[in-house]
Amino acid sequence: MKKILVLGSAPGAIIPHEINSYFVIAVNASIGAFPEIVPDVLLLNGWTLRGTRGIAPESQQKLKGRAVKHLIVIDTVPDISDLIKGSGIIYQSLEIWSRQKRADVSSYQTGFSYAGATGHDIPSTGLTALCYALRLSTEVYISGINTRSDGHSYSDKNFTRGHVETDRKILAALAGGYKEISQ
Q1: Which residues, at least 6 apart from 60, have a Cβ–Cβ distance to it below 8 Å?
Q2: What's the predicted TM-score (pTM) here?
Q3: Sign of torsion, CA 156 132 4 171?
Q4: Nearest partner of 142 among 1, 30, 29, judged by Cα
Q5: What pLDDT does residue 27 have?
Q6: Residue 115: which of 131, 129, 103 has the closest Cα?
Q7: Cβ-Cβ contacts under 8 Å for 30 (sequence gap 6 or more)
Q8: What is the 3-class SS of the chain, one letter each residue?
Q9: What are φ and ψ of residue 94, in 5° steps?
C-alpha cells in the first residue's frame, strides 16, 4: 500500500501538493474544504447523516453530490440505509460498521478498551480513521486532526469538537506511528 493521508476536519487542514501519491482516508465532511478531492475512503459517523443540530446540517450540505470511492458509515440505526441513500453521496462501494467495530479498530491499535463506550469516551471519527490507516500501512500522515482547537475546516462557525481528552490519549499512545502534514 502506498502512503496514506488521514484527512480530519479540524481547522488548518491542508493537503500535500502531491496528493495523487497518497491513499486518502477522509473523515466526515472534511472533504468539504477541498472540492477537488475524491477520497479513496470516506469514514463517516452516522450522526453526520442523521443529526439536526450543531455541525451536522452543514456537513450534510457539504457532502451532497460528493464522490468517494469507498464509503464506511459507523452506525447501525434501523434507517441507516435510507439515510445513506438520501445523503447524496456518490460512492462505488459501501461498508457499514457497528459501534463495536469502531471500538475494535481503535482498541487494536491503541491497546485501550472502548467496548461499550459512548459519547465523548469513544475515539473521534478522525482518530478511528487514523487507527484504521495504521492497520493498512506503516507510512501514515495526518492533517486536520487537532485536539487544541474547536471548529471545522469547512465551516466558518466555531462548533466545539468532542472527544478531545480521549483523542489526546490515543495520539500519545500512537506517537511515532504517523507524521503530520505541514505547510
Answers
A1: 29, 48, 49, 51, 87
A2: 0.88
A3: positive
A4: 30
A5: 95
A6: 103
A7: 7, 8, 9, 13, 126, 144, 152, 153, 154
A8: CCCEEEECCCCCCCCCCCHHHCEEEEECCHHHHCCCCCCCEEEEEHHHHHCCCCCHHHHHHHHCCCEEEEEEEECCCCCHHHHHHHCCCEEEEEEEECHHHHHHHHHHHHCCCCCCCCHHHCCCHHHHHHHHHHHHCCCEEEECCCCCCCCCCCCCCCCCCCCHHHHHHHHHHHCCCCEECCC
A9: -135, 140
Cα dist from 131 to 35, 48, 87, 168, whole Å: 25, 20, 26, 14
**Contact by Cβ (8 Å): 12, 33:** no
Q: How far is CA 173 from CA 21, 83, 131, in A?
A: 27, 34, 11
Residues of the chain with pLDDT under 50: 151-153, 155
Specify the pLDDT at position 164. Answer: 66
Q: CA 125 to CA 111: how far, in whole Å?
A: 17
- In angstroms, the CA 28 to CA 80 distance is 15
